[in-house]
Amino acid sequence: MGKNLIVAQSGGPSVAINATLAGVIAAAQATADIGRIYGGIHGVEGIQAGKIVELTDFHEMEKLKATPAMALGSCRCKLPPVEDRDAPIYQNLKKVFRDYDIGYFLYIGGNDSMDTVCKLAHYFAGEPDAPIFLGLPKTIDNDLPLTDHTPGYGSAAKYLAITMREIIQDTAIYAVPAVTIVEVMGRNAGWLTLAAGMPRFAGGSKPDIIAIPEVPFDEEEFLRQVRETLEHSPNVVAAVSEGIRDRNGEYVGSSAKSGAVDTFGHAYLSGVGKYLEGLVKREIGCKVRSIELNLMQRCSSHLASLADIEESFALGKAGVAAALRGETGRMVALDRLSDSPYSVKLKTVAIEDVANLEQLVPEKWWDLQDPKAIEGIRDYILPLIQGEVPQFRNEYGFNEYISFME
Amino acid sequence: MGKNLIVAQSGGPSVAINATLAGVIAAAQATADIGRIYGGIHGVEGIQAGKIVELTDFHEMEKLKATPAMALGSCRCKLPPVEDRDAPIYQNLKKVFRDYDIGYFLYIGGNDSMDTVCKLAHYFAGEPDAPIFLGLPKTIDNDLPLTDHTPGYGSAAKYLAITMREIIQDTAIYAVPAVTIVEVMGRNAGWLTLAAGMPRFAGGSKPDIIAIPEVPFDEEEFLRQVRETLEHSPNVVAAVSEGIRDRNGEYVGSSAKSGAVDTFGHAYLSGVGKYLEGLVKREIGCKVRSIELNLMQRCSSHLASLADIEESFALGKAGVAAALRGETGRMVALDRLSDSPYSVKLKTVAIEDVANLEQLVPEKWWDLQDPKAIEGIRDYILPLIQGEVPQFRNEYGFNEYISFME
Predict the structure, then answer these.
(1) pLDDT at residue A259 above 90?
(2) Interface contact A69-B170, CB threshold 8 A
(3) Is the pLDDT of residue A39 over 90?
């Protein structure tokens, strides 16, 4: 019997991260080279405190794949520098790895979580009996480098494309001029906002305006576009990233800028959508509404993409295979071989090249009037948002989900 | 060949209102007693201006039933008092009815639209060759009297129940205390917020707090409930109606109350969710987030309830049948015969008893700790949110919708 494996989740949730967990468990169960399978509750924070469940005999894989958020819970925990060898969290982890005879540590997460894997690999390098440390990517933001895309992005993109299509339909019913501003997640990368643009890229005429953080945002130009659109259509729809910035790099609608304060004098936090709503109301004076898609972008499992879920599952299995090959300090990544028919290859990349770095929308896709850019974006996103995931519903018609946190 | 029929839509959209339109068209096509079938674009406002399309040969009923919002467009138009007999809009309508040989006028809408039907019936009463005027209810708010519920409510309720279930799942992953406040549509009636409570009523433990406009809202009591919940669960989830009011009838979080102004001195409009977010941040100091479900509550056709869509379709057909029986100045309504198995009967009611009146949540369902209230609400809502509606998707996987507005 081989060494034991521990798997955990960290960072923000998505609807695909449990599919990767299911892939890890399934692959680990299928090999005699791995003994027991453990799950760490609330990431490294929980593991170092001994919050561990056993998953060796868990078999409800399809239900786990259809469960949004994180069945093992999450944490947001930045490990101390590896030079701080006596830091309690490293000492605690060392003890847990020894107590549980851990040979493989697989961590599913985004940029910050890859920093954790990177530090652990460096910290334990040279230690006798050091476990294998592997990162499995997930983030709806799609902003990890060296991978074609990240698990979770496809499902969030599908939610955005379909919801935008419905919002456009909803706003088209009145003859009176109206502006609808939809705020999409993404502090630095515009990937999700491009997905919200899919109703236009796939043959429609809206959303009229699409603004991503990669391109400096000019309020005058925005107002000009709104006015111009109102000349031929009563309904203007805009999709904007929460992280759009002006030419000086300052967030559009940051509280410093809106200057809004409540009766207590506290700064009034409002998103860019609300800010632009106020701008249009003041400068153009027509009916205007802002919509923040909020958590629904990352938790709407009823709209999960089957392509995303199955790929996330495969990626979990590939993580176990890489671990068994002895790879450590690496992340599993996706290479796209072809858009249509869609085909990807799984590979691993050095975690140092990923941790704390961001992959932004490439400059060739910044001009959203350019037919070549539109074609490129559409061909990139379309295969990621296809297919429906079977739902597990109870007697009331509500989804049943898996949780290991109880 | 009989007289012609005109049908139009008015007020706010829903995902079921086109199913009622489909029912009207289908039933009108099936009888020799009706000649041509017309659709009025943008409600009475468009009809009086001659914006009319012919629907006699339209046959894509299933696609129309799966189209959210309003295929004929909408208006928000309050007719002048009927005593104002020379008002241009009445004169224009009279001419249009004569020009198009209209014998039947069917209007699909909510409270305000029923006011329009009521006024038209009164205005034309006694005129030679006056058309039949009938109202067909729809409103996601479920606040029309004399009908068990309104078409559109079931689909919005399903969106709310499923989305709340997913939000609860999303917020459960961290061990640090956090409060999530979900703001639901409903200025006066709490029907939609009760639907958001379904994950708890159907056997779960959350949302922890549910606040409807019918029950005066006490901020101190709210904070007490949040603190109490935090003692045994790190994640508090609250569902609150946008229209909750304090003991003096003042909207909670009205701008007058928050006093927030921007740099220009304009009042900063924020919903009750944002207001309560600020309150929790200030008074409790933990992580807090508010979510406004916004238009998605009324436009998410991908989550439409089949029960709602088929019932809306049947209601459209019943409207034509009532018109052919010569009923005028009435609205088609639903009588519930049984919760399980679910069974309803279609009837008509006098429009005067409906127009401008509201049906609020009954007092017996105000105490959401009372098991009898919970059972009553659950049995009321459950049959309305069942079943999936077939989707029409194009080559890109996007829904194809019907519009008569082009």
Answers:
(1) no
(2) yes
(3) yes
Residues of chain B positioned with their CB less than 8 A from the CB of A166? 68, 296, 299-302, 399
Span A374-393, pLDDT tens digits: 999 999 999 999 999 998 88
What mean pLDDT value characterizes chain A?
A: 94
* Catalytic option among A33, A84, A115, A141: A141
Q: How far is B205 from chain A (nearest CA, A)?
A: 13
Alpha carbon separation from A366 to A98, A192, A379, B100 (Å, rounded): 50, 14, 15, 52
Whether B202 and A266 lie within 8 Å, measured CB to CB: no
Asked if the model's pLDDT at residue A256 lies above 60, the reply is: no
- For residue A264, pLDDT beyond 60: no
Tell me the β-bridge partners of B129: none
Q: Cβ–Cβ of B291/A295 closer than 8 Å? A: yes
Hey, of A294, A298, A402, which one would you mutate to test binding to chain B, going by the most B CBs within 10 A of its CB?
A294
**What's the whole-number mean pLDDT along residues A207-230?**
98
Cis-peptide, bond into residue A341, ω within 30° of zero: yes
Spatial distance between the Cα atoms of A374 and B329, rounded to a whole number of angstroms: 52
Give B-chain residues touching A295 at CB under 8 angstroms: 167, 170-171, 180, 289, 291
Cβ–Cβ of B302/A299 closer than 8 Å? no
CB contact under 8 A, A301 and B166: yes
Report the pLDDT value the prediction gives residue B315, as an integer from 0 to 100.
98
Q: What ipTM was reported for this prediction?
A: 0.95
- Chain A's closest residue to B77, CA to CA, is A174
User: Which of chain A's residues have a Cβ under 8 Å away from the Cβ of B302?
Assistant: 162, 166, 302-303
Q: By three-state DSSP, how is residue A334 classified? A: strand
- pLDDT tens for each residue of A320-363: 999 999 999 999 999 999 999 999 999 999 999 988 789 999 99
Mean pLDDT, residues B319-331 taken together: 97
Beta strand pairing call for B37-40 and B4-9: parallel
CB A147 within 8 A of CB A318: no
Whether B370 is catalytic is no
Q: Which of A201-210, A250-259, B145-154, B346-355 has the lowest mean pLDDT?
A: A250-259
Q: How far is CA A42 from the centre of its chain?
A: 18
SS3 per residue for chain B: CCCEEEEEECCCCCCCHHHHHHHHHHHHHCCCCCCCEEEECCHHHHHCCCCEEECCCCCCHHHHHCCCCCCCCCCCCCCCCCCCCCCHHHHHHHHHHHHCCEEEEEEEECHHHHHHHHHHHHHHCCCCCCCEEEEEECCCCCCCCCCCCCCCHHHHHHHHHHHHHHHHHHHCCCCCCEEEEEEECCCCCCHHHHHHCHHHHCCCCCCCEEECCCCCCCHHHHHHHHHHHHHHCCEEEEEEECCCECCCCCECCCHHHHCCECCCCCECCCCHHHHHHHHHHHHCCCEEEEEECCCHHHHCHHHCEHHHHHHHHHHHHHHHHHHHCCCCCEEEEEEEEEECCEEEEEEEEEHHHCCCCCCCCCHHHCCCCCHHHHHHHHHHHHHHHCCECCCCECCCCCECCCCCCC
Whether B291 and A294 lie within 8 Å, measured CB to CB: yes
Q: What is the pLDDT of residues A283-309, one digit of tens each?
A: 999 999 999 999 999 999 999 999 999
CB burial readout A214-227, b (16+ within 10 A) else e: bbebeeeebbebbe
Q: Which of A14-18, A214-218, A354-358, B168-172 has the lowest mean pLDDT?
A: A354-358
Measured CA to CA, the distance from residue B96 to residue B45 in angstroms comes to: 12
